[in-house]
Design a protein that fits this description.
Order of helices and strands: HHHHEHEHEHEHEHEEEEHEHHEEHHH
Helix content: 25-40%
Number of helices: 15
Shape: globular
CATH class of the largest domain: Alpha Beta
Number of domains: 3
CATH superfamily of the largest domain: Type I PLP-dependent aspartate aminotransferase-like (Major domain)
Strand content: 5-15%
Number of strands: 12
Length: 487
Amino acid sequence: MHKEDQPLIFELSTEGRIGYSLPEMDIPEIDLGELLPEGYLREEEPELPEVSELDIMRHYTALSKRNHGVDSGFYPLGSCTMKYNPKINENVARFNGFAHLHPLQDESSVQGALELMYDLQEHLIEITGMDEVTLQPAAGAHGEWTGLMMIRSYHEANGDTKRTKVVVPDSAHGTNPASATVAGFETVTVKSDENGLVDLEDLRRVVGEDTAALMLTNPNTLGLFEENILEMAEIVHSAGGKLYYDGANLNAVLSKARPGDMGFDVVHLNLHKTFTGPHGGGGPGSGPVGVKADLIPYLPKPVLVKNGDQYEFDYDRPQSIGRVKPYYGNFGINVRAYTYIRTMGPDGLKAVTENAVLNANYMMRRLEPFFDLPFDRHCKHEFVLSGKRQKKLGVRTLDIAKRLLDFGYHPPTIYFPLNVEECIMIEPTETESKETLDAFVDAMIQIAKEAEENPEIVQEAPHTTVIGRLDETMAARKPVLRYQQKQ
Protein backbone atom coordinates (compact mmCIF):
# COMPACT_ATOMS: atom_id res chain seq x y z
CA MET A 1 0.00 0.00 0.00
CA HIS A 2 1.09 3.54 -0.72
CA LYS A 3 1.58 5.57 2.45
CA GLU A 4 -1.25 8.06 2.81
CA ASP A 5 1.07 10.88 3.88
CA GLN A 6 2.66 10.91 0.43
CA PRO A 7 -0.22 11.17 -2.05
CA LEU A 8 0.27 10.64 -5.75
CA ILE A 9 -0.10 13.54 -8.16
CA PHE A 10 -3.49 12.28 -9.36
CA GLU A 11 -4.72 12.35 -5.77
CA LEU A 12 -3.71 16.02 -5.44
CA SER A 13 -5.80 17.01 -8.44
CA THR A 14 -8.33 19.83 -7.89
CA GLU A 15 -10.71 20.88 -10.64
CA GLY A 16 -9.72 24.18 -12.20
CA ARG A 17 -6.18 24.29 -10.82
CA ILE A 18 -3.62 25.19 -13.47
CA GLY A 19 0.11 24.56 -13.55
CA TYR A 20 0.98 26.20 -16.85
CA SER A 21 -0.90 28.21 -19.46
CA LEU A 22 -0.03 27.75 -23.10
CA PRO A 23 -0.11 30.82 -25.35
CA GLU A 24 -2.97 31.17 -27.77
CA MET A 25 -2.38 29.42 -31.09
CA ASP A 26 -1.29 31.71 -33.88
CA ILE A 27 -2.00 29.17 -36.63
CA PRO A 28 -5.35 27.93 -37.96
CA GLU A 29 -6.90 25.09 -35.95
CA ILE A 30 -6.58 21.71 -37.64
CA ASP A 31 -9.39 19.19 -37.91
CA LEU A 32 -7.73 16.00 -36.64
CA GLY A 33 -10.47 13.97 -38.29
CA GLU A 34 -8.93 14.85 -41.63
CA LEU A 35 -5.50 13.60 -40.58
CA LEU A 36 -6.19 10.49 -38.50
CA PRO A 37 -8.48 7.49 -39.01
CA GLU A 38 -11.59 7.65 -36.87
CA GLY A 39 -10.50 4.75 -34.64
CA TYR A 40 -7.45 6.70 -33.48
CA LEU A 41 -9.38 9.71 -32.12
CA ARG A 42 -10.39 9.95 -28.45
CA GLU A 43 -14.09 10.12 -27.70
CA GLU A 44 -13.49 11.76 -24.32
CA GLU A 45 -10.97 14.21 -22.94
CA PRO A 46 -8.07 12.51 -21.09
CA GLU A 47 -8.37 12.60 -17.30
CA LEU A 48 -5.17 14.51 -16.60
CA PRO A 49 -4.38 15.78 -13.09
CA GLU A 50 -5.14 19.45 -12.45
CA VAL A 51 -2.38 20.69 -10.18
CA SER A 52 -0.24 23.78 -9.64
CA GLU A 53 3.34 24.12 -10.82
CA LEU A 54 4.48 23.92 -7.19
CA ASP A 55 2.58 20.65 -6.69
CA ILE A 56 4.09 19.08 -9.77
CA MET A 57 7.62 20.17 -8.81
CA ARG A 58 7.23 18.70 -5.33
CA HIS A 59 5.80 15.51 -6.82
CA TYR A 60 8.78 14.86 -9.09
CA THR A 61 11.27 15.95 -6.44
CA ALA A 62 9.73 13.42 -4.03
CA LEU A 63 9.94 10.72 -6.69
CA SER A 64 13.62 11.49 -7.26
CA LYS A 65 14.30 11.05 -3.55
CA ARG A 66 12.77 7.58 -3.66
CA ASN A 67 15.09 6.52 -6.46
CA HIS A 68 18.27 4.71 -5.44
CA GLY A 69 21.48 4.95 -7.43
CA VAL A 70 25.22 5.05 -6.98
CA ASP A 71 25.06 8.79 -6.31
CA SER A 72 22.68 8.30 -3.39
CA GLY A 73 23.88 5.13 -1.69
CA PHE A 74 25.82 1.86 -1.73
CA TYR A 75 24.75 -0.39 -4.60
CA PRO A 76 26.43 -3.82 -4.12
CA LEU A 77 24.65 -5.50 -7.03
CA GLY A 78 26.70 -8.61 -7.78
CA SER A 79 27.46 -9.25 -11.45
CA CYS A 80 26.53 -5.70 -12.48
CA THR A 81 29.47 -3.51 -11.37
CA MET A 82 27.40 -0.55 -10.20
CA LYS A 83 30.31 1.77 -9.56
CA TYR A 84 30.54 5.52 -9.29
CA ASN A 85 30.20 7.60 -12.45
CA PRO A 86 32.88 10.34 -12.26
CA LYS A 87 31.39 13.75 -12.96
CA ILE A 88 34.29 14.72 -15.21
CA ASN A 89 32.84 12.19 -17.66
CA GLU A 90 29.54 14.08 -17.63
CA ASN A 91 31.28 17.42 -18.16
CA VAL A 92 33.21 16.18 -21.19
CA ALA A 93 30.14 14.51 -22.73
CA ARG A 94 28.41 17.89 -22.52
CA PHE A 95 31.09 19.79 -24.45
CA ASN A 96 29.32 21.61 -27.30
CA GLY A 97 31.53 19.89 -29.86
CA PHE A 98 30.18 16.51 -28.70
CA ALA A 99 26.70 17.20 -27.38
CA HIS A 100 25.52 19.33 -30.31
CA LEU A 101 26.62 17.07 -33.15
CA HIS A 102 24.01 15.65 -35.49
CA PRO A 103 24.43 11.97 -36.45
CA LEU A 104 23.81 12.75 -40.11
CA GLN A 105 26.55 15.36 -40.42
CA ASP A 106 29.11 14.82 -43.15
CA GLU A 107 32.19 12.90 -41.99
CA SER A 108 34.40 15.88 -42.84
CA SER A 109 32.61 18.01 -40.22
CA VAL A 110 32.91 15.53 -37.33
CA GLN A 111 36.55 14.48 -37.54
CA GLY A 112 37.11 15.19 -33.84
CA ALA A 113 34.29 12.87 -32.80
CA LEU A 114 35.48 10.17 -35.20
CA GLU A 115 39.02 10.49 -33.87
CA LEU A 116 37.74 9.99 -30.30
CA MET A 117 35.80 6.90 -31.36
CA TYR A 118 38.76 5.47 -33.26
CA ASP A 119 41.08 6.14 -30.34
CA LEU A 120 38.58 4.49 -27.96
CA GLN A 121 38.56 1.43 -30.22
CA GLU A 122 42.35 1.29 -30.07
CA HIS A 123 42.33 1.51 -26.28
CA LEU A 124 39.76 -1.29 -26.03
CA ILE A 125 41.80 -3.42 -28.43
CA GLU A 126 44.81 -3.06 -26.15
CA ILE A 127 42.80 -3.68 -22.96
CA THR A 128 41.13 -6.84 -24.29
CA GLY A 129 43.90 -8.30 -26.46
CA MET A 130 41.64 -8.36 -29.51
CA ASP A 131 42.51 -7.33 -33.10
CA GLU A 132 39.55 -5.10 -33.91
CA VAL A 133 36.60 -3.51 -32.09
CA THR A 134 33.19 -2.18 -33.10
CA LEU A 135 31.39 0.40 -30.97
CA GLN A 136 27.97 -0.18 -32.52
CA PRO A 137 26.17 -2.47 -30.01
CA ALA A 138 23.90 -0.62 -27.60
CA ALA A 139 24.46 -2.72 -24.47
CA GLY A 140 25.88 -5.97 -23.12
CA ALA A 141 23.23 -8.41 -24.32
CA HIS A 142 23.16 -6.64 -27.68
CA GLY A 143 26.92 -7.15 -27.83
CA GLU A 144 26.46 -10.83 -27.03
CA TRP A 145 24.01 -11.24 -29.90
CA THR A 146 26.32 -9.30 -32.23
CA GLY A 147 29.30 -11.49 -31.34
CA LEU A 148 27.30 -14.69 -31.75
CA MET A 149 26.02 -13.56 -35.15
CA MET A 150 29.61 -13.03 -36.26
CA ILE A 151 30.53 -16.52 -35.02
CA ARG A 152 27.53 -17.91 -36.87
CA SER A 153 28.54 -16.11 -40.09
CA TYR A 154 32.10 -17.35 -39.70
CA HIS A 155 31.00 -20.99 -39.49
CA GLU A 156 28.56 -20.59 -42.37
CA ALA A 157 31.23 -18.99 -44.56
CA ASN A 158 33.39 -22.06 -43.93
CA GLY A 159 30.51 -24.36 -44.84
CA ASP A 160 30.33 -25.58 -41.24
CA THR A 161 26.54 -25.37 -40.90
CA LYS A 162 26.30 -28.27 -38.47
CA ARG A 163 27.56 -26.07 -35.62
CA THR A 164 24.23 -25.23 -34.03
CA LYS A 165 25.04 -25.38 -30.30
CA VAL A 166 26.46 -22.90 -27.82
CA VAL A 167 27.85 -24.19 -24.54
CA VAL A 168 27.19 -22.15 -21.38
CA PRO A 169 28.19 -22.88 -17.76
CA ASP A 170 25.51 -23.54 -15.16
CA SER A 171 26.65 -20.32 -13.45
CA ALA A 172 26.27 -18.21 -16.62
CA HIS A 173 24.50 -14.89 -16.84
CA GLY A 174 20.95 -15.38 -18.02
CA THR A 175 21.58 -13.25 -21.08
CA ASN A 176 24.07 -15.82 -22.42
CA PRO A 177 21.57 -18.59 -23.26
CA ALA A 178 18.99 -15.96 -24.21
CA SER A 179 21.34 -14.28 -26.69
CA ALA A 180 22.35 -17.66 -28.12
CA THR A 181 18.71 -18.56 -28.67
CA VAL A 182 17.93 -15.23 -30.37
CA ALA A 183 20.99 -15.77 -32.61
CA GLY A 184 19.52 -19.09 -33.74
CA PHE A 185 21.56 -21.51 -31.63
CA GLU A 186 20.65 -24.23 -29.17
CA THR A 187 22.23 -24.02 -25.73
CA VAL A 188 24.00 -26.82 -23.87
CA THR A 189 24.87 -26.49 -20.19
CA VAL A 190 28.25 -27.50 -18.78
CA LYS A 191 28.27 -28.06 -15.04
CA SER A 192 30.59 -26.63 -12.40
CA ASP A 193 32.93 -28.75 -10.30
CA GLU A 194 33.21 -28.76 -6.50
CA ASN A 195 35.44 -25.67 -6.68
CA GLY A 196 32.88 -23.59 -8.56
CA LEU A 197 34.81 -23.75 -11.85
CA VAL A 198 33.87 -25.28 -15.19
CA ASP A 199 34.14 -29.07 -14.95
CA LEU A 200 36.72 -29.96 -17.61
CA GLU A 201 35.52 -33.54 -18.01
CA ASP A 202 31.95 -32.36 -18.53
CA LEU A 203 33.21 -29.76 -21.01
CA ARG A 204 34.95 -32.47 -23.01
CA ARG A 205 31.72 -34.46 -22.97
CA VAL A 206 29.48 -31.67 -24.33
CA VAL A 207 31.89 -30.13 -26.87
CA GLY A 208 31.91 -31.68 -30.33
CA GLU A 209 31.42 -31.18 -34.05
CA ASP A 210 28.15 -29.34 -33.45
CA THR A 211 29.70 -26.78 -31.06
CA ALA A 212 29.70 -23.24 -32.40
CA ALA A 213 31.05 -21.56 -29.28
CA LEU A 214 31.58 -21.64 -25.54
CA MET A 215 30.28 -18.54 -23.72
CA LEU A 216 31.61 -17.61 -20.32
CA THR A 217 33.05 -14.81 -18.27
CA ASN A 218 36.32 -14.92 -16.36
CA PRO A 219 36.22 -14.58 -13.44
CA ASN A 220 32.91 -16.39 -13.46
CA THR A 221 29.65 -15.31 -11.89
CA LEU A 222 30.69 -16.84 -8.58
CA GLY A 223 33.58 -14.37 -8.52
CA LEU A 224 36.13 -17.14 -9.10
CA PHE A 225 38.87 -17.09 -11.71
CA GLU A 226 38.71 -19.95 -14.20
CA GLU A 227 42.25 -21.22 -13.63
CA ASN A 228 42.00 -23.80 -16.42
CA ILE A 229 40.99 -21.29 -19.09
CA LEU A 230 43.87 -22.14 -21.44
CA GLU A 231 42.97 -25.83 -21.32
CA MET A 232 39.31 -24.95 -21.86
CA ALA A 233 40.28 -22.89 -24.91
CA GLU A 234 42.26 -25.81 -26.29
CA ILE A 235 39.28 -28.16 -25.85
CA VAL A 236 36.92 -25.83 -27.71
CA HIS A 237 39.35 -24.78 -30.43
CA SER A 238 40.39 -28.37 -31.12
CA ALA A 239 36.75 -29.15 -31.78
CA GLY A 240 36.48 -26.20 -34.19
CA GLY A 241 34.49 -23.92 -31.90
CA LYS A 242 35.05 -20.34 -30.77
CA LEU A 243 35.34 -18.81 -27.29
CA TYR A 244 33.06 -15.92 -26.38
CA TYR A 245 33.94 -13.66 -23.42
CA ASP A 246 31.09 -12.02 -21.52
CA GLY A 247 32.72 -8.78 -20.36
CA ALA A 248 30.42 -8.20 -17.39
CA ASN A 249 33.22 -9.12 -14.97
CA LEU A 250 36.14 -7.41 -16.69
CA ASN A 251 36.43 -5.04 -13.72
CA ALA A 252 38.08 -7.92 -11.87
CA VAL A 253 41.04 -8.31 -14.25
CA LEU A 254 41.37 -4.89 -15.87
CA SER A 255 45.01 -4.31 -16.89
CA LYS A 256 45.95 -7.58 -15.14
CA ALA A 257 44.76 -10.16 -17.67
CA ARG A 258 43.34 -9.91 -21.19
CA PRO A 259 40.61 -12.12 -22.68
CA GLY A 260 42.57 -12.34 -25.92
CA ASP A 261 45.53 -13.83 -24.07
CA MET A 262 43.23 -16.38 -22.42
CA GLY A 263 42.19 -17.75 -25.80
CA PHE A 264 38.94 -15.88 -26.40
CA ASP A 265 37.95 -15.06 -29.97
CA VAL A 266 35.15 -12.58 -29.23
CA VAL A 267 34.56 -10.27 -26.30
CA HIS A 268 31.87 -7.75 -25.46
CA LEU A 269 32.46 -4.93 -23.00
CA ASN A 270 29.98 -3.01 -20.87
CA LEU A 271 31.05 0.62 -20.99
CA HIS A 272 28.23 1.36 -18.53
CA LYS A 273 29.82 -1.08 -16.05
CA THR A 274 33.60 -1.36 -16.25
CA PHE A 275 34.11 2.07 -17.78
CA THR A 276 31.71 4.12 -15.59
CA GLY A 277 28.97 5.16 -17.98
CA PRO A 278 25.61 5.68 -16.24
CA HIS A 279 23.94 2.33 -15.61
CA GLY A 280 20.29 1.33 -15.99
CA GLY A 281 17.86 4.21 -15.67
CA GLY A 282 20.78 6.64 -15.47
CA GLY A 283 21.48 6.44 -19.19
CA PRO A 284 21.83 4.18 -22.23
CA GLY A 285 24.32 1.35 -22.28
CA SER A 286 27.13 0.60 -24.66
CA GLY A 287 28.43 -2.86 -25.51
CA PRO A 288 31.42 -2.72 -27.87
CA VAL A 289 32.55 -6.04 -29.31
CA GLY A 290 36.15 -7.04 -30.00
CA VAL A 291 37.21 -9.90 -32.26
CA LYS A 292 40.30 -11.80 -33.32
CA ALA A 293 41.59 -11.43 -36.88
CA ASP A 294 39.63 -14.27 -38.50
CA LEU A 295 36.33 -12.68 -37.44
CA ILE A 296 37.11 -9.12 -38.61
CA PRO A 297 35.36 -9.58 -42.01
CA TYR A 298 32.05 -10.17 -40.20
CA LEU A 299 32.07 -7.01 -38.06
CA PRO A 300 28.93 -4.84 -38.29
CA LYS A 301 29.24 -2.18 -40.93
CA PRO A 302 30.16 0.55 -41.30
CA VAL A 303 33.57 0.01 -39.73
CA LEU A 304 35.37 3.12 -38.48
CA VAL A 305 38.82 3.29 -40.08
CA LYS A 306 41.70 5.74 -40.33
CA ASN A 307 42.79 6.63 -43.85
CA GLY A 308 45.92 8.75 -43.68
CA ASP A 309 44.98 11.71 -41.49
CA GLN A 310 41.26 11.24 -42.05
CA TYR A 311 38.73 9.14 -40.18
CA GLU A 312 35.89 7.60 -42.16
CA PHE A 313 33.27 4.87 -42.22
CA ASP A 314 33.99 1.86 -44.39
CA TYR A 315 30.81 0.35 -45.88
CA ASP A 316 32.58 -2.00 -48.30
CA ARG A 317 32.34 -5.09 -46.12
CA PRO A 318 30.71 -7.86 -48.19
CA GLN A 319 30.84 -10.45 -45.38
CA SER A 320 29.57 -8.10 -42.66
CA ILE A 321 26.58 -9.16 -40.57
CA GLY A 322 25.20 -5.69 -41.38
CA ARG A 323 24.35 -2.70 -39.25
CA VAL A 324 23.18 -3.59 -35.73
CA LYS A 325 22.45 -0.08 -34.43
CA PRO A 326 21.30 3.18 -36.01
CA TYR A 327 24.21 5.54 -36.63
CA TYR A 328 27.23 4.21 -34.72
CA GLY A 329 26.42 3.29 -31.14
CA ASN A 330 25.63 5.49 -28.16
CA PHE A 331 28.15 8.25 -28.71
CA GLY A 332 27.65 10.02 -25.37
CA ILE A 333 28.49 6.85 -23.44
CA ASN A 334 31.54 6.33 -25.62
CA VAL A 335 32.74 9.83 -24.72
CA ARG A 336 32.30 9.06 -21.02
CA ALA A 337 34.23 5.79 -21.28
CA TYR A 338 37.02 7.45 -23.27
CA THR A 339 37.30 10.18 -20.64
CA TYR A 340 37.52 7.56 -17.90
CA ILE A 341 40.25 5.57 -19.65
CA ARG A 342 42.32 8.67 -20.39
CA THR A 343 41.83 9.98 -16.85
CA MET A 344 42.87 6.71 -15.21
CA GLY A 345 45.71 5.67 -17.48
CA PRO A 346 47.21 2.16 -17.36
CA ASP A 347 48.32 2.41 -13.73
CA GLY A 348 44.93 3.71 -12.66
CA LEU A 349 43.07 0.90 -14.41
CA LYS A 350 45.35 -1.62 -12.72
CA ALA A 351 44.56 -0.01 -9.36
CA VAL A 352 40.85 -0.40 -10.14
CA THR A 353 41.25 -4.17 -10.28
CA GLU A 354 43.44 -4.33 -7.20
CA ASN A 355 41.01 -2.33 -5.07
CA ALA A 356 37.90 -4.10 -6.40
CA VAL A 357 39.43 -7.48 -5.48
CA LEU A 358 40.65 -6.21 -2.11
CA ASN A 359 37.22 -4.81 -1.20
CA ALA A 360 35.44 -8.03 -2.15
CA ASN A 361 37.77 -10.27 -0.18
CA TYR A 362 37.63 -7.97 2.86
CA MET A 363 33.83 -8.09 2.92
CA MET A 364 33.72 -11.82 2.29
CA ARG A 365 35.96 -12.61 5.25
CA ARG A 366 34.08 -10.28 7.58
CA LEU A 367 30.75 -11.92 6.65
CA GLU A 368 32.05 -15.50 6.60
CA PRO A 369 31.25 -16.23 10.30
CA PHE A 370 27.60 -15.21 9.88
CA PHE A 371 26.59 -16.76 6.53
CA ASP A 372 27.49 -19.94 4.67
CA LEU A 373 30.38 -19.52 2.22
CA PRO A 374 29.92 -22.09 -0.59
CA PHE A 375 33.43 -21.63 -2.00
CA ASP A 376 36.02 -20.88 0.66
CA ARG A 377 38.77 -19.47 -1.50
CA HIS A 378 40.19 -16.19 -2.73
CA CYS A 379 37.56 -14.35 -4.78
CA LYS A 380 37.94 -11.64 -7.38
CA HIS A 381 35.62 -8.63 -7.69
CA GLU A 382 32.54 -10.29 -6.19
CA PHE A 383 31.66 -13.18 -3.92
CA VAL A 384 28.75 -15.46 -3.19
CA LEU A 385 27.22 -16.22 0.20
CA SER A 386 24.38 -18.62 0.97
CA GLY A 387 21.46 -17.96 3.31
CA LYS A 388 20.93 -21.67 4.04
CA ARG A 389 21.75 -21.12 7.72
CA GLN A 390 19.09 -18.42 7.99
CA LYS A 391 16.59 -20.45 5.96
CA LYS A 392 16.62 -23.10 8.68
CA LEU A 393 15.45 -20.37 11.06
CA GLY A 394 12.56 -19.42 8.76
CA VAL A 395 14.32 -16.43 7.19
CA ARG A 396 14.85 -16.57 3.43
CA THR A 397 17.43 -14.73 1.36
CA LEU A 398 14.53 -12.64 0.01
CA ASP A 399 13.73 -11.55 3.57
CA ILE A 400 17.35 -10.51 4.12
CA ALA A 401 17.25 -8.42 0.96
CA LYS A 402 14.00 -6.75 2.04
CA ARG A 403 15.43 -5.99 5.47
CA LEU A 404 18.47 -4.29 3.93
CA LEU A 405 16.11 -1.67 2.50
CA ASP A 406 15.43 -0.49 6.05
CA PHE A 407 19.14 0.30 6.41
CA GLY A 408 19.11 2.41 3.23
CA TYR A 409 20.97 -0.06 1.01
CA HIS A 410 20.09 -1.46 -2.36
CA PRO A 411 20.18 -5.24 -1.81
CA PRO A 412 22.79 -7.37 -3.55
CA THR A 413 21.80 -9.83 -6.27
CA ILE A 414 19.87 -12.77 -4.80
CA TYR A 415 19.02 -16.30 -5.99
CA PHE A 416 21.65 -16.02 -8.74
CA PRO A 417 23.70 -17.88 -9.83
CA LEU A 418 21.18 -20.69 -9.75
CA ASN A 419 23.71 -23.32 -8.69
CA VAL A 420 23.98 -21.86 -5.16
CA GLU A 421 21.06 -22.41 -2.78
CA GLU A 422 19.71 -19.19 -1.20
CA CYS A 423 22.36 -17.27 -3.09
CA ILE A 424 23.52 -13.77 -2.10
CA MET A 425 25.97 -12.26 -4.60
CA ILE A 426 27.81 -9.11 -3.51
CA GLU A 427 30.05 -6.82 -5.57
CA PRO A 428 31.36 -3.74 -3.74
CA THR A 429 33.46 -2.31 -6.63
CA GLU A 430 36.67 -0.37 -6.11
CA THR A 431 35.08 3.03 -5.55
CA GLU A 432 33.67 2.39 -2.06
CA SER A 433 35.50 3.38 1.11
CA LYS A 434 36.28 1.03 4.00
CA GLU A 435 33.75 2.95 6.11
CA THR A 436 30.99 2.21 3.60
CA LEU A 437 31.96 -1.45 3.40
CA ASP A 438 32.02 -1.76 7.19
CA ALA A 439 28.63 -0.10 7.57
CA PHE A 440 27.08 -2.52 5.07
CA VAL A 441 28.76 -5.52 6.67
CA ASP A 442 27.52 -4.39 10.10
CA ALA A 443 23.97 -4.22 8.71
CA MET A 444 24.28 -7.74 7.30
CA ILE A 445 25.61 -9.02 10.64
CA GLN A 446 22.73 -7.38 12.48
CA ILE A 447 20.24 -9.02 10.12
CA ALA A 448 21.91 -12.41 10.68
CA LYS A 449 21.52 -11.93 14.45
CA GLU A 450 17.89 -10.82 14.01
CA ALA A 451 17.23 -14.04 12.09
CA GLU A 452 18.30 -15.92 15.22
CA GLU A 453 16.75 -13.73 17.90
CA ASN A 454 13.79 -11.96 16.29
CA PRO A 455 13.05 -13.48 12.87
CA GLU A 456 9.70 -11.71 12.52
CA ILE A 457 11.37 -8.34 12.04
CA VAL A 458 13.21 -9.75 9.01
CA GLN A 459 10.29 -11.77 7.68
CA GLU A 460 8.03 -8.71 7.63
CA ALA A 461 10.56 -6.21 6.23
CA PRO A 462 10.79 -3.59 4.89
CA HIS A 463 9.37 -1.32 7.57
CA THR A 464 10.59 2.14 6.59
CA THR A 465 10.06 2.33 2.82
CA VAL A 466 7.27 4.13 0.99
CA ILE A 467 6.02 0.82 -0.36
CA GLY A 468 5.74 -2.05 2.12
CA ARG A 469 6.16 -5.74 1.37
CA LEU A 470 4.38 -6.73 -1.81
CA ASP A 471 2.36 -9.85 -2.48
CA GLU A 472 4.85 -11.10 -5.06
CA THR A 473 2.72 -14.04 -6.19
CA MET A 474 -0.21 -11.74 -6.91
CA ALA A 475 2.08 -9.17 -8.53
CA ALA A 476 3.38 -11.83 -10.93
CA ARG A 477 -0.02 -13.31 -11.75
CA LYS A 478 -2.09 -10.13 -11.79
CA PRO A 479 0.27 -7.20 -12.34
CA VAL A 480 -1.13 -3.67 -12.13
CA LEU A 481 0.58 -1.90 -15.00
CA ARG A 482 -1.08 1.51 -14.84
CA TYR A 483 -2.29 3.98 -12.27
CA GLN A 484 -5.85 3.34 -11.06
CA GLN A 485 -7.51 6.32 -9.47
CA LYS A 486 -9.10 5.74 -6.10
CA GLN A 487 -12.91 5.73 -6.16
